[in-house]
Amino acid sequence: MSLILAYLPHLLEGLLVTLEVALGSFAIGLVIAIAAVFGAEFGNAPVRWCVSTYVTIIRGLPELLVIFLVFYGGTVLLSRMFGAYVEVDALTAGICALSFVSGAYLTEILRGALHTIPPGQAEAAKSLGLGTGATFRHVILPQMFSYALPGLGNQWLIILKESALVSIVGLEELMRKGVVAAGATQSPMTFYLIVAGLYVAITSVSMAIFAYGNRRLTFGR
Amino acid sequence: MSYEILLQSIPIVYAGLKLTLIVTLAGFVLGQALALPLGLALTARSPLLRWPVATHTFLLRGSPLLVQLFILYYGLAQFDAVRASAIWPIIREPVNCAIIAIGLNSAAYVAVIIAGGLKRLPPGQAEACISLGLSRFSRMRDVLLPQVYRAILPSIGNELILVLKASSLASAVTVMEMSGAARAFTAKTYAPFEVFIVAGLLYLAIGFLFGIAFRFVERRIPGVAAIGKSGRAAQPRPQALGASS
Amino acid sequence: EPLRIGTSADFPPWGYTDTAGDIVGFDREVGDEICKRIGADCAWTNQSFDGLLASLQVGKFDLVISGLSITAERAKQVDFSKAYADAPYHIATIKGGALAATKTRAELEAALEGKAIGVQTGSTHEAVANTYFKNADVRLYERNEQIADDLAAGRIDAGLLEQSVWEELMKAREGKLELAGPMLTSADYAEFGNGQGIALKQGREDLKARVDKAIVDMISDGTIGKISTKFFGYDLSYKG
Amino acid sequence: MIVAQNLIKSYGAAKVLHGVSLTVAAGERIVLCGPSGSGKSTFVRCLNGLEERQGGTVEIAGHCLSADCANVLALAGDVGMVFQQFNLFPHLTVLDNLTLAMRRVRRTPHRAAEEEAMAMLARMQLTEKAASYPRQLSGGQQQRVAIARALCMKPKVMLFDEPTSALDPEMVKEVLDVMTDLSCQGLTMIVVTHEMGFARSVADRIIFMDRGTILEEADPETFFRHPSHARTKEFLRQIGTQY
Amino acid sequence: MIVAQNLIKSYGAAKVLHGVSLTVAAGERIVLCGPSGSGKSTFVRCLNGLEERQGGTVEIAGHCLSADCANVLALAGDVGMVFQQFNLFPHLTVLDNLTLAMRRVRRTPHRAAEEEAMAMLARMQLTEKAASYPRQLSGGQQQRVAIARALCMKPKVMLFDEPTSALDPEMVKEVLDVMTDLSCQGLTMIVVTHEMGFARSVADRIIFMDRGTILEEADPETFFRHPSHARTKEFLRQIGTQY
Ligand SMILES: Nc1ncnc2c1ncn2[C@@H]1O[C@H](COP(=O)(O)OP(=O)(O)OP(=O)(O)O)[C@@H](O)[C@H]1O
Ligand SMILES: Nc1ncnc2c1ncn2[C@@H]1O[C@H](COP(=O)(O)OP(=O)(O)OP(=O)(O)O)[C@@H](O)[C@H]1O
Ligand SMILES: [Mg+2]
Ligand SMILES: [Mg+2]
User: Fold this and answer.
1) Which stretches make up the ABC transmembrane type-1 domain (chain A) (predicted)?
2) Is this complex's ipTM strictly greater than 0.85?
3) How far is the CA of E52 from the centre of ligand 4 (A)?
4) Contact present, A103 and A28 (Cβ < 8 Å)
5) Domain D2-239 is found in CATH 3.40.50.10490
6) CA-CA distance, A126 to A133, in Å (whole number)?
7) Is C58 exposed, middle or buried (CB count within 10 Å of its CB: 0-12, 13-18, 19+)?
8) pTM of the predicted model as reported, rounded to 2 decimal places
9) Contact E231, E215 (CB under 8 A)
10) Quick check: C207 and C200 in contact, CB under 8 A?
11) Contact E52/B245, CB-based, under 8 Å?
């Protein structure tokens, strides 16, 4: 029992890493997604093709494979380009790989939200003389996020759980800490249950935050 | 990257294909079967029915599938009572555990989708049923559920792909499906890239076939364009933001 | 420029983490001693096994020390140092089971025919089990305690693991398991490989030469034997 | 045929019906009008058990409706309802929309139900739309199907809640024609509508509601010529003669 | 102020406008009517560059619109448009709805824009709704905000596409009142509407469209008394005098 308690601080460290990875890749994924949505809706044919290929392939592969190929494939490419091994620390690497994955899913969510905005909104903006940029920034984007919020909340929970996979690039996040502690103490079930409990705890907190955001973003509904 | 290893890894991955398909399809079917009653319970009026199911779906959606799989497979087996019970012959087999864990997890997700679909149906549909005197059962079976299923068909198609990807976790309980076979191959040969690329392509191909199958089904089902649209069909207009600027 | 070493520290007593979170174990002490002898600073990284070799190949690590068994097939992808350890293996089974009575290799092989045997992914045991135990249902586990648990639960009939690992596992399971047949080594089954070595990216001859020399020295002066006794209770330094 | 007494309905703190009473004889045709939010829909929905109420009694087509509407299914189609949004079943063809309740509630055999439904469609001049899906029809056609669907159950009372207000101006006429037709056949009807021309020519009685009470109740002649309340006059001015 | 010549518009194979020409002088008030699907909306949307066209020229408020509408932003609010569905920006308050384009397009300073907008709201009797979100307003109020939003840009021409048809009967009046008010101030207007009372009292000219062409064009007196086409007569009968 005391041995189990001794490993709890490690789990909490792992929890922090999990949060860092999940938050980081959610944020970067969102940036990728906004750019991709813009490309998919306003870009020329090659850009649209690139976006749709990116989304299709990433969404069709098990995440572990994607992270593996993105990170190690990416490192090989980078190393070839610079002629020497390019050191990427594990946290950056994990966040990059997972951003790339979550970017694909977020693109689809944002695109779906974009399409629920009635076309009349853009037409009204146009008839007032607003340009494409101003229309996107002031009319489309805020509404897109308000529509997308439930989807974004879901995706956040998914990324939270998927961050467990980045242990393959050398990050000691919650799941990996749990496995290591299970190995060291010979009591796997205890640790798996604690790990599950911790995930559920973050899930509950984030759901509450999203519900709050949802209430704030309703514009007088 | 070596072509020799690439060729070598094709039969390895292919050997896992059958297990991948079994786990995926069985898990999917189990998930769908359980999702309907769970989804109905989620929209039930009685809190006695609603709360336990809401908690169940919350826990299953809130923790990683891998942990759930471990708890089902290794956790339950630690209890003598479980090993003496009637379910032991079932969960004794790793494949069954993988299918059950994935099915339960998928059911939780789909149940929430079904409940959402039911809530998004225009209330007028249920009211029309009441005013025609249709029983609760007939209302669900003949009117509400067909519309919900038609509306969530794309989500169900999505779910099949998600289950396909989730099946890659089955190797954690010794079920050597494609990705497990790929990892074992890597461990044996220390050549990580080739076999993962082969596995990736196979996953893409299967997902692509599933996608085609679902779009085929979708086109075969008539009626409902989008939930909540009654009256005159909305006039299609060009893209949300015109390409003119 | 420190030497970067990767290991998967979830594998006592080869590598695990102590309550302070530091990587400890047999591999760690062997690796540290090598570093000292070749005059290098070492930076250790704990990473899941699935990513170790890819990391080595893309250049993230200079060395991987994680109880890796040396085989000809693997040597096509990475270079191995000279072996530093040669771990003995053992079959275990449920206490009082039919297998428990077997004494010799031949008896063991006959008894295992068609049985369900658990081995670890990433080990060489799969090849051994497939080659010598006819029609056996060989199942791959990621972790050794999972094999012990399934053995105790009755899902499998036998497990093949390192001798040292069994002792811990059997203690934790309160006498539900016992060892079967003789201790097995690479002398019994060549598929076990030629002991455990350190993996390097191919072509790093210079580093390999320095590491090799350190290993040979450490075996001959008994350092490895001493570390081994500390962690395993017996000497498993490579003598081949 | 309908006896509603002292209906009270509130949403949380907001009281929507303040004790509304109404008696309708068999064969009577009532038009209900009033400003938006005055509680017309709520009243009609209380009558056929779509809305629970906080007080009052409802007896309709021979059934006593409990306040929590638990026994609403006992009406079993005796009270037909036509909604503003049609509420056709979008996944069923027109014919299936009509036969579903006949088969499931009345237990009419499949064949007989279809024959009856086809007869009803013929009456509505929709024979060639039998195999179409609702969204393939114009709004006016959809509303006629909705009326047909309710009529197939041979209701004793028909309730209409603004059946034409979701329609294009040109389609309004085809639906009003059908309703006029029904009124000539002696069906008991309550119609919520702003179509004053229809009210004038069809209604036996016009009822004006405002803020959850019945303000005025009169035959069309009196109602349009000599409305007694100022609010009614104001309403008629805004509705009838906008310019 | 508006010169449209020989406008041709098709969606794929379906031709929607078959060469429509119209000239509108400054200050003229035009009412456009016709059956559903006759191309009224499409025509109006071609005029302010929301819809590309396949042929014909459009000159409006001093701008020549190219056929692919590439230069639509040059109109920069000179042509105001009021839509049937209001199309207010739901995430902005009423005040921000009004000031957004003033600030971004006209580059009016924040303060000045708000003052102007408040003056406009006062004119529309919406002062106390400045901080509300569109969803918190009634339909009639929303439409008045939409009109105010367009007027804030000081347009030379206002286009209205069925501005009252999504409204409840009683709210129609408040919007029609505002529009009548505007027409008295000499603004050039094209109004698509079925409100014949409004047309009669406000329009300088009434234009009747059917199947993508202008069928009839006359002053209100002539239009209502002596329509020349049978189709117009039929339309007037169905719209005006349903009972
Ligand atoms: N679900 C609800 N929750 C709260 N208030 C409601 C609800 N439904 C209706 N109301 C309120 O009850 C009042 C009466 O509504 P009702 O729909 O019966 O009016 P109505 O006379 O039918 O109006 P309309 O002509 O617009 O259809 C309104 O003030 C409305 O805001
Ligand atoms: N995006 C589109 N694609 C194809 N056809 C269209 C599209 N938009 C409109 N149409 C067709 O163009 C024709 C004219 O439509 P329009 O909306 O201009 O008619 P309208 O006179 O405004 O009718 P309403 O009174 O119903 O608004 C109709 O037949 C319509 O079906
Ligand atoms: Mg109503
Ligand atoms: Mg139109």
Assistant:
1) 15-211
2) no
3) 16
4) yes
5) no
6) 11
7) buried
8) 0.82
9) yes
10) yes
11) no
